[in-house]
What we know:
Layout: E1 5-6, H1 15-22, H2 26-37, E2 40-43, E3 49-52, H3 55-63, H4 65-68, E4 69-70, H5 74-83, H6 92-105, H7 108-111, H8 115-132, E5 138-140, H9 141-158, H10 163-180, H11 197-217, H12 228-233, H13 245-276, H14 278-288, H15 297-301, H16 304-316, E6 322-327, E7 331-333, E8 336-338, E9 343-347, H17 348-351, H18 394-409, E10 412-415, E11 424-426, E12 430-432, E13 437-442
Helix pairs in contact: 8-9, 8-18, 9-10, 9-13, 10-11, 11-13, 13-18, 14-16
Amino acid sequence: MEATHSSNKIPGPGFFKFVRNIGRNPVLYCYELMKQYGDVVKCPSVQNIYLISNPLLAKEVFLNSQKLFDRNDFVNNRLRKVMGDGVVLTTGSKWKRQSQTAQLAFRKEDLQRHISEIIAYTDAVVSTLATKITENALCNIHEEMRRLVMDIMAGCLLQIHDEETLARLREKFLIGNEYVSKSTPFNLPAWVPGSFNKKIDGAIKYIDNVILEILSSYHSTDKYKQTLLAYVLDQKDEFGNPLTQEEILAEIKNIFISSYFSTSDFLAWLFYSLAKYPEWADKIYCECKTFNNFTDTDVLETALQSQLFIHEVLRCYPPGWSSMHHTSGAFKVGDYLIPKNSTLFVSIYNVHHHPDFWQNPDLFNPNRFQPSNQLKEKDAFIPFGKGPRKCVGMGLAQMVINIVFTKIVLNFKFSVDENEVPEIQSRVSLGSKKDIKIRLQPLKV
């Protein structure tokens, strides 16, 4: 019979060392903690945090996420303030209904209706970039991808096309991103000076008002009937009643905000990686120029060189780099018993770089995903999470990524500037400390 040890036996840094260092770069500091202390690390804070880095242990956490955990840790409470009590953050029967709603909204056969729309938005960005790029000038690819993904999500979800509204939504979303990404491993009371509450409250109010105005006109026009919004509004609660306005607002914000950041941040990392590894850019260009029909996303999904590259970027820069779980009761992790009212912090970044499951994990190598190279453990690659809380918007994200990636590869050459080296940083998704900038050169066709 295996021995179960008290959580007091779990190794980790002291309180002041952890609190002092976690703020400088949470992603990389957690990676350092794994290297120094192992698969389970105790991180003392106002509420004890336990860092999980082993994919097998992470799997146990994910598979039990609905039974043994709630969403009342400090990060999820920040997300709740920004996004409302939607599918990302609820538990129990409410989460079950909300996840079913989101799954209906993101069915592949229904997403196909938006392919032409996504292509049109992407073509517009390609044309704009081709005309405004000057020789040897840096392109803020991060900002361009935020613009593009905002256009796609706002159009497909809410039929928003007004440039001023889109720009202000981007601005308010970034304020929400800044709030969620605060480095303190606990939340300050609202009355503390400089606690950011006035600024974030104003941003949330603007986002809510934009959505509520659309909801107020929904039934007086047919323009929303083919949007993702229609699927949300068609849903009922567990008793067959229509959703309340508060529930609808939360669902829309959960879909909108989470999809926006994860997709735009990942696309920025994807094009930076193409610029950094030009030999792969050349191979992918040769592959993509054989495509004739961009509305057939199944073809894009089977493009081997492109998918090898995308998978490796997902491994190196997983959009949802971590997952927080608050224990509602004692929970066994490996040989340790984690007490009630603790936070389990699963670092997907660490899972994707665990040296026991990946050969040379810090080396960028798309060929590790060749079909002939079987992964040592399939759950060591979980860019969209695992278990019942796996990202429900994964299908839309993959569709957008494949279309945007292929279109831009076919129109530009990429290169990096040695003075522009991005540093990964914790955000709503895995972002960078400064916007990612690369050089783009239009291809002469």
